[in-house]
Structures are given as C-alpha cells and as structure tokens.
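Q: Could you fold this chain for me?
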Amino acid sequence: MALRLHRIAVAVLCVSIAPSASAATPERLTWEELPRLVGKHVSIPLYDGGAVTGKVSEVQADALLVQVSKSTNLVAYPRGPMRVPRDKLHVLDVHGKGVKYRVIGTTLGCVAGAAGGVGVAIGVQGGLFSNEHNGAAGAAFVGVMAGVTAAGYALGNAADRRTTTIQIIH
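A: Sure. Below is the predicted structure, expressed as structure tokens.
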C-alpha cells in the first residue's frame, strides 16, 4: 500500500512540475507598445548586473520611468522614481497575480479541513457516541478546519503568481 501511495505522489509531483519546466518564449513588444505596462509591477535587470523591481509609472520617448520598491543595490538604485534609458532596456519581467487557484485552494482546503476537523473532533470527544470533552472537540474542529483552509489559500496563492518576460524590440 505504501509503495502504491509513493507512486501516486511521484506522479502528482511530475505532473505539477511539468508546466513550470517548459521554457516560455518571451513576449516581444516595441517601445510604442510599452504604455500598456503603466501601473504594472515589473523587474528590470540592469546593464551593470543589478536589478530593480517596482511599478511602471510612465513611458517617455527616451526612457521608462519606474517607481522602485526593491533594488539589489540601494546605494546605486535607491527606492523612488528611476529613469531607465531606452537604449539600456532590452528585457523586463512583468509580475501578475490571478484569482482562480486561490479560490480553488481555499475551497478545497475548507472542505478538507471540515472533513479532517470532524475526524479529529470525534477522536478528541472519545468516539462517535461519546459525550466527553465537548469543548475540546469543538476547538479541535475549528483549529483543523482553519489550518487546512489557510494552507489551501497559501498553495493557491503560490500557484496564482505569473511572470511574463517581455523583450523590447528597438
């Protein structure tokens, strides 16, 4: 039985890793198409090996203006507004977040937590027809249900993160 569960676990792991292992080709945009990125969260590798992360605030004819929130070198690239020259910008990553997997993860976590909580509550209570430890059984039910629901949300949140690489055509 344990070997069978091991095979199932390996199969699920392989299926879940397979989509992330495929390398997606970067989306190609011209400078004139970049205004659609205004307000989006981006990461930009810089020409000297550093990198900044922030929101695109404006696309000018000669530069991209980014409100920097994270930087690999806060001395060279402090938080705040930054101009990335057009001739130095070749690639950037756009970060986004969906909703679908958070909803699915939370729902499945709630259902699994309720089922697990009932099992734990019955065990704490002393059996199906016993009436011992009612308060502890209720607390165990709520604790298991809340914990598994939170875990489902966390897994869904991780699955909802999306990164799109944009290659800028000059």
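A (continued): The CA atoms of residues 131 and 168 lie 68 Å apart.
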